[in-house]
Specification:
The complex is a heterodimer of chains A (166) and B (102). Chain A has 166 residues and is an all-alpha fold. Helix content of chain A is 73%, strand content 0%. In chain A, helix 1 packs antiparallel against helix 2 and helix 2 packs antiparallel against helix 3. In chain B, helix 1 packs antiparallel against helix 2. Classes of the chains: A mainly alpha (166), B mainly alpha (102).
Chain lengths: 166, 102
Amino acid sequence: MAQSIFFVLATIIVLASLMVVFSDNPIHSVLFLFVVLFAMAGLYVLLNAPFLAAVQVLIYAGAITVLILFVVMLTSPYIPSVKLLESKQSDAALLVVVVFFGALSQILRTSSWFDPGLKTAPKVVKTAKIGEILFKEYVLPFELASVVLLAALIGAVYMVSGVKWR
Amino acid sequence: MIPLSYYLVLAALVFCIGLFGALVRKNAVLVLLSLELMLNAIVLNLIAFSNFATPVTIKGQIFSLFVMVIAASEIGLGLAIVLFLYRKRATIEMDKFTELKG
């Protein structure tokens, strides 16, 4: 059962992420990214991480995709004649990616992670436990992350507003 | 039960597709989209390892929360830069920005 769900989700993810990269229309790319993020959330549920699945749907699929969609609409008019593989680097990029994937799968094959005896913990992680760990052990990184987020927010607003400093 | 390696292979595939997109696409927004794909592959890896290697302390899940925070600020700043460039130059094609060419 879980296996078939995994394969359905994996097929959706791979096909949709191919469409993200290869689609000519940027709007379609963003919508396919939405599909990828949603299916990823399904995988997180399979991996006993329901809280992260919810975060993924709310923040990634909900907020970030809409943000990107707005920027696409503001910046890039749809030009059907611009084909992506006209880029001069596409051959070199393909080579790099194939070599990289080969290296990755080699590492995977020689590692001990392919051992099918590795069993997962059959316990769903409770959200309360995540909060507990986050606010006990990881308080400092948590606060730092909020500062980073605030700095990025102020930087983004400043850059887009067009106000000159002095 | 699904073995760990399935997740790792899937994440590697998605990461490579995102890498290809980031290298090939000319539209700056689509490069950012490909970066998001790569980051999501990484988060999938982290959660998979969290489930299989540290199921009690769930280090991977905590770490992937931080990755999500950084990804959100990265995409916000990146889109702001894209809008800024569009206002200055009326284009967001990556190979038009060559001022720093040596």
